[in-house]
Amino acid sequence: MTYTxxxxxxxxxxxxxxxxxxxxxxxxxxxxxxxxxxxIMSVTLTLILVMSNVIVSALRHQLPQSIRLILExxxxxxxxTIADEFLKAYMPDxxxxxxxxxxxxxxNCIVLGRAEAFAMHNPVLPSAMDGLGQGLxxxxxxxxxxxxxxxxxxxxxxxxxxFQLSADNGWFSPLLIMSLPAxxxxxxxxxxxxxxxxxxxxxxxxxxxxxxxxRGKL
Amino acid sequence: MDTLTSILLRSIFVDNLALSFLLGMCxxxxxxxxxxxxxxxxxxxxxxxxxxxxxxxxxxDLLLAPGAWRWLGLDILDLSYLKFIVFIGVIASFVQVxxxxxxxxFVGLHRALGVYLPLLTxxxxxxxxxxxxxxxxxxxxxxxxxGFGSGVGWALAIILFAALRERVRxxxxxxxxxxxxxxxxLCGFLSLAFASLRGLAG
Lengths: 218, 202
Prior knowledge:
The complex is a heterodimer.
Chain A: H1 3-9, H2 25-30, H3 35-58, H4 68-90, H5 92-98, H6 109-117, H7 124-154, E1 156-157, E2 160-161, H8 181-195, H9 204-216
Antiparallel strand pairs in A: 1-2
Helix pairs in contact in A: 1-7, 3-4, 3-5, 3-6, 3-7, 4-5, 4-6, 7-8
Chain B: H1 3-14, H2 25-30, H3 35-64, H4 83-105, H5 107-113, H6 117-121, H7 124-135, H8 140-168, H9 180-195
Helix pairs in contact in B: 1-8, 3-4, 3-7, 3-8, 4-5, 4-7, 7-8, 8-9
C-alpha cells in the first residue's frame, strides 16, 4: 500500500483514535444517543480536522515555536465557530441536540493532537489525508455506537421503525439503559475488546507493567 | 427548594459533567490510576471551575451578549458567536495566571497541584461548564453556584472512580478486557449509579 493510502486506512481500525489511542472520547460517548446527530457530528469533526491540519501544515514554517499551541487553538476555534454558525443556520434541530458538543470540538484531543503530532512536521497533502483518516476512524466508532444505542433504545434507525414496538402490538420493548449515558461506556468497552487482538502494540503491556510495579510495592 | 440549592444539587449529582455529559474523559481516564493523583486533580478542577465560569459569565455579559454594547448605541451588535475563541482564551490565560500566583505565594500548593493545571486548559469539562452557563442563561449568582457545583461533581466522580480502579487491580478479567476495557466498564457502572440520583434535584 502506498504511504498516502495508509495514512487514511491505518487510523480506521488498527490505530483507531477512539478505541486504541483513547483520544476524543468525550464527544464520542456523549452525542451517540441517536444516529443522525452522531453522523452530523462525525462529518463536522472530520471537516474541522482536515481544515486545521491543512492550515497548520501550510503555516508550519511561519508559526513561532513558543506560541504555536495558542495559534493552533485559534485556528481550530475559528473552524468550530464557522461550523457552529452553519449548523445553527441550516440545521437548527440538530444543532440544539448537539448543544455544546460542537463547541467542545475545540478541546477535542484528536484535533489538537494531530495538528501537533502530524501537521507541524508534514507537507499539506499528507496532512489533509491524515486528517481525513483520523476523522474516518472517529466517525466509524461514533456511527457504530449510535446505531446500537438507537436501535436497541428506541427500535428505530435513522428515525425509521425497524423493530415493531410492543406498544404497537409488536414484540420489541425498548431497553431503557440504551438512553442512559452508561450504555455508551459499555458499548465502547465492547468495541475495545473487539479491537484488542488486532493490536499487538497493545496497551496491555503497559497495564501489566503498572500492575506489577503496584504489586511490588505491597 | 430555592433555585440556587437546586442548581447546586443538579450540578453535583444529576448533571454530573463527567458521568452524565461525559466531559473531560481524557484526563478522567488518564489521571485516575492512583487515588492521590485523582484527589489533586479534583481539587484543581474545583478551583478552576469555580472561578472560570463566573469570569466567563462577566466577559459574556459585558462584551459578547446581544445588546451588550447598547450604551454605545450599537443595539444590533451581537458578538455571541465569538464565545468559543474568547472563552478558551480566558480559561487559558486564567490558568496561566493562577499558576504564576501559586508558584509565587503558595509553594506547597503549587507543588501539589502544579502539574495538573496545564491539563485543565484543554479539558472539555472546563470549557463545557462555561458553554452550559451560556446555554442555560444563568445569572451571576447562578453561574457561581453552577461553576462550584459542577467542579465538585467532577471531582467526586474522579475520586470515586480512582478508588474503584485501585480495587480492580486485583481482579482477573479476560486478557483482552484488561486495562482499558475494564476501565470503561467501571465508568459505565459508576455512571449507572449516578443515573439513579436523578430524582434528587426535583
